[in-house]
């Protein structure tokens, strides 16, 4: 087994989240507010974006020489990137990668689910924040109805992909949807995971008042649909797992704000333009594209990433409350590095 690279707190580099585009067909108010991401917004030019070959080479070097085991494709909306299944099949060839997943808003899944599965994608996490059309359209700000995502979920299932649902919960946005979502997914085999609203980037106007805590979410559901805890699948699993007492269906809550999990964070993020980012809340990344395009050998590339990871001491979420009272730090936007 390849020896993992470890950081200052002995956390291995195990997961690589690869953003394949900074563009999106949604303008979720909490992620890409349309007044900022408008028609004048400068998205990355094509030449700045890593090619499939560059992404595959980096993933392969990190799997072979760095101990990376899991890949997640994200964005922006990853399915806006042309021929994405080709990338999946290239990544699928890499020895040592156990798992390839994708996070998507689901709208393009009816078109692509089958070819993605055939290419080697195992799992999709589909984001759905409400079952109420009015609320959902207000969130995505593109007039896209809930049925579009439900069709995507169905297509993914039909194709044999393992499906999970992510619901970001924000006070004043969708707390009324917590219970309806629990009811809806309880009778499916699909795991729903609630996510505390995070202060990613600088454009979503986050305040602590917007956060509905894990405890509040749990209480709200448990009162009506009694829950019991489920053991974590593995050390470092980000979601706290529960199951409904009556039918055993699982749900999860990801408490990045009120109960941070930095101690076991083994994730690196790669932006579409090839910046390696060691924490979701970093103010910048390290330019791997330059190294990839400079003719560096695999050894040199691995050494570059190793030198970055070995210096890593990020634990933003554990220290968040120290930062929120201070002047805002500059942070990368979520649409640039994915979730
Ligand atoms: N476009 C794809 C999607 O929405 O699934 C992938 C990229 S999106 C940035 C990844 C995930 O981050 C989504 O589930 C989204 O809901 C979540 N997200 C975005 N901004 C967030 C925030 N401020 N707090 C918590 N989750 C957030
Ligand atoms: Fe797009 Fe996903 Fe951000 Fe929504 S959360 S704007 S779907 S990248
Ligand atoms: Fe990992 Fe940074 Fe999130 Fe902590 S705040 S869990 S170090 S990405």
From TrEMBL:
List the pathway annotation.
Cofactor biosynthesis; molybdopterin biosynthesis
Q: Which SMART domains match?
A: Elp3
The residues that hold S-adenosyl-L-methionine are 30, 76, 127, 198
Q: Which residues form the Radical SAM core domain?
A: 8-228
Q: Which domain of life is it from?
A: Bacteria
Q: What keywords sit in the KW lines?
A: 4Fe-4S, GTP-binding, Iron, Iron-sulfur, Lyase, Metal-binding, Molybdenum cofactor biosynthesis, Nucleotide-binding, S-adenosyl-L-methionine
* EC number, UniProt record: 4.1.99.22
Recorded hits in InterPro entries, A to Z, give:
Aldolase_TIM, Elp3/MiaA/NifB-like_rSAM, MoaA, MoaA-like, MoaA_NifB_PqqE_Fe-S-bd_CS, MoaA_twitch, MoCo_biosynth_MoaA/MoaC, rSAM
Q: Name one GO molecular function term.
A: S-adenosyl-L-methionine binding
Q: Which PROSITE patterns match?
A: MOAA_NIFB_PQQE (PS01305), RADICAL_SAM (PS51918)
Q: Which residues bind GTP?
A: 17, 72, 103, 164, 267-269
Record-listed [4Fe-4S] cluster 1 binding positions: 24, 28, 31
GO BP field: Mo-molybdopterin cofactor biosynthetic process
Q: Does the keyword S-adenosyl-L-methionine belong to this entry? A: yes
Where, in this chain's numbering, is [4Fe-4S] cluster 2 bound?
262, 265, 279
What remark does the entry make about the cofactor?
Binds 2 [4Fe-4S] clusters. Binds 1 [4Fe-4S] cluster coordinated with 3 cysteines and an exchangeable S-adenosyl-L-methionine and 1 [4Fe-4S] cluster coordinated with 3 cysteines and the GTP-derived substrate.
Reactions accelerated catalytically: GTP + AH2 + S-adenosyl-L-methionine = (8S)-3',8-cyclo-7,8-dihydroguanosine 5'-triphosphate + 5'-deoxyadenosine + L-methionine + A + H(+)
Cofactor section: [4Fe-4S] cluster
Tell me which family the UniProt entry assigns to this protein. Answer: Belongs to the radical SAM superfamily. MoaA family.
Question: Which proteins does it associate with, and in what oligomeric form?
Answer: Monomer and homodimer.
HAMAP family according to UniProt: MoaA_B
What does the function comment of this entry state? Catalyzes the cyclization of GTP to (8S)-3',8-cyclo-7,8-dihydroguanosine 5'-triphosphate.
Protein name (record): GTP 3',8-cyclase
Organism of origin is Salipaludibacillus agaradhaerens
Quote the gene name from the UniProt entry. moaA
């Amino acid at each position: 087994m390849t020896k993992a690279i470890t950081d200052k707190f002995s956390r291995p580099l195990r997961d690589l989240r690869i953003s394949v585009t900074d563009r999106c067909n949604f303008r979720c108010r909490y992620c890409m507010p349309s007044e900022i991401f408008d028609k004048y917004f400068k998205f990355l030019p094509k030449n700045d974006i890593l090619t499939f070959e560059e992404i595959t080479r980096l993933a392969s070097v990190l799997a072979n020489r760095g101990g990376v085991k899991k890949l997640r494709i994200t964005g922006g909306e990853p399915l806006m990137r042309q021929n994405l299944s080709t990338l999946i099949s290239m990544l699928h060839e890499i020895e040592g990668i156990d798992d390839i997943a994708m996070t998507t808003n689901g709208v393009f899944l009816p078109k692509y689910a089958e070819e993605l599965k055939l290419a080697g994608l195992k799992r999709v996490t589909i984001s759905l924040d409400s079952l109420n059309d009015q609320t959902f359209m207000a969130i995505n700000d593109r007039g896209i109805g809930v049925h579009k995502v439900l069709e995507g979920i169905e297509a993914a299932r039909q194709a044999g992909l393992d499906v999970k649902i992510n619901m970001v919960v924000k006070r004043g946005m969708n707390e009324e949807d917590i219970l309806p979502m629990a009811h809806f997914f309880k009778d499916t085999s699909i795991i729903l995971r609630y996510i505390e609203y995070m202060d990613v980037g600088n454009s979503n106007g986050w305040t602590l008042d917007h956060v509905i805590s894990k405890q509040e979410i749990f209480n709200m559901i448990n009162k009506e649909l009694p829950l019991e805890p489920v053991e974590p699948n593995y050390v470092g699993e980000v979601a706290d797992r529960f199951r409904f007492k009556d039918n055993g269906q699982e749900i999860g809550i990801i408490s990045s704000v009120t109960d941070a999990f930095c101690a076991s964070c083994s994730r690196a993020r790669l932006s579409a333009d090839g910046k390696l980012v060691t924490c979701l809340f970093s103010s910048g990344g390290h330019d791997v594209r330059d190294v990839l395009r400079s003719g560096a050998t695999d050894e040199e590339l691995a050494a570059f990433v190793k030198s970055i990871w070995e210096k890593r001491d990020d634990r933003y979420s554990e220290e968040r409350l120290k930062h929120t009272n201070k002047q805002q730090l500059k942070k990368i936007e979520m649409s640039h590095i994915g979730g």
